[in-house]
Amino acid sequence: MKLAMGEGGGSAVAELQGLDGAFSFAERLLQRIWRDGEFDRSRAATVDGRGVRILYPGKWNRLGGPDFFNARLELDGRTVCGDVELHLRANDWISHGHREDPKYRNVVLHVVLFPPMEATSPGADGRSIPILALLPLLYRSLEEHAEDDAVERLATPRFSEACEALLALSAADRLTELRARARDRWRVKVGHATKRVERSGWREACHQYALEILGYRFNRGPMLALSTEHPLEEWLRMGGDAGDVLRWYDERPERWNRQAVRPANHPRRRLQQYASWVQAVGDWPSRLQTIAGPDAALRFAPPVGSVSATRRSDCFRRLTADFADNVCGASVGGTRFQTLVCDGFLPLLGATWPENEPALFGFWFAWHPGDLPETIGRWLSELGVVDGREQPSCQGLAQGLLGWILREEERQEQSTACQCWRGT
């Protein structure tokens, strides 16, 4: 792992190794995770063993001084109010000169990403500031957080520059690159699914993926957190009573992001939708697992030909019907259903039945794009790789373009980090 200062020296960046090579994780992502509570709060404890309950994470400060003002916490049952400072590693507290800086005298908790050797950070006047490490508490990998952040920044000039570089290639090379990057993206998704299944088991991994994806962009973290707090068995015991689900929502109003969320994507509505899904098909993870298993009625053969030809095939149509009706009980539709298939069902099956991986990848490549940003669709058209007939927009080309953009962005980040290390 390498650490460097970000652009302008305002934010540290860690260079880490992921499933598809190196990636960067910026300190501002850690700040966002803290703000949104995308970690297991029930297990939060300081390095020296004091329980931490987060009543209010504080107001995010984008200027100088502590990262969050006026947080409210409970440390071993005692309520404390003050500021919170976040770093990727604990010794950044000293290297950044916070110990004697008067702006940091009100810091009551030092939150870091990587677990440190030391138990506390030194404050002014001999104070010892407790340290909370977030990495062991994260629901998702650092790579997944970094990817989501990159997708949200698709409209920045760097992403346009990355697409311009792809446009400079010949049409054939352009398509070759996109297919290669799509394969990389598929491997990453299967890798994430494999880790989730290993950690939580098949049934709970399915349950977690479903709620996380239903949370869409703004509430993926809170929905994933709720899925771990209330496993599938608990939903089944409710018998489809949405009242219990809404009580779970109301218990922690501060965790949900309701700004800029369309009514159809409101977390209350999505929780009710999942309750209906579980009521209709309580054993849906088992049904999903059998689709690609050795005794599956649907015999997989890698699709051949164009995307349109794959979508017209009997296998694709039967697979779509199986997912929509047999697995989801017709409870999920539209682009959210397509995203559920591409980000959840197919990668989970790829992780569990590797012998069917070539066919699963082929269907995933040809699948409908789902909830990917509109920017991706526009660039696919400008690149001339989709024509709306034999080569319509599809998950594979969209993910291939996203993979290309992320790789170019990573090159830029690494170049900037290297310049910062050299002091240029």
Description:
By secondary structure, the chain is α+β, with helices and mostly antiparallel strands. The protein has 2 domains: 2-137, no CATH class; 155-382, no CATH class. Helices cover 50% and strands 13% of the residues. The protein is built from 17 helices and 10 strands. It has helices spanning 27-36, 92-95, 142-152, 157-167, 171-200, 202-214, 220-229, 232-238, 242-251, 267-280, 284-291, 307-312, 314-327, 334-352, 357-366, 374-382, 395-422, and strands at 2-5, 12-18, 21-26, 52-56, 59-60, 68-75, 78-87, 107-112, 120-122, 128-133. Strands 4, 5, 6, 7, 8, 9 and 10 form a 7-stranded mixed sheet that branches. A hairpin with a 7-residue loop joins strand 5 and strand 6. Helix 6 (202-214) packs antiparallel against helix 7, helix 9 (242-251) packs antiparallel against helix 10 and helix 16 packs across helix 17. The longest helix is centred in the middle third of the chain and has 30 residues, at 171-200. It is globular and about 75 Å long.
Write out key terms for the chains shown.
alpha+beta; three-stranded antiparallel beta sheet; 17 helices; 13% strand; disordered N terminus; disordered C terminus
> From the structure provided, what is the oligomeric state, counting identical versus distinct chains?
single chain
**Termini separation (Å)?**
21 Å
Secondary-structure class = alpha+beta
- Low-pLDDT segments: 1-10, 420-424
Q: What characteristic shape results from the CA principal axes?
A: globular
Order of helices and strands: EEEHEEEEHEEEHHHHHHHHHHHHHHH
Roughly how many Å is the radius of gyration? 23 Å
Which strand-content bin applies to the residues?
A: 5-15%
Helix content: 40-55%
Average pLDDT level: 85
Number of helices: 17
Tally of discrete structural domains: 2
Say how many strands there are: 10
Give a quick account of the main beta sheet: strands, pairing sense, barrel closure. Answer: 7 strands, mixed
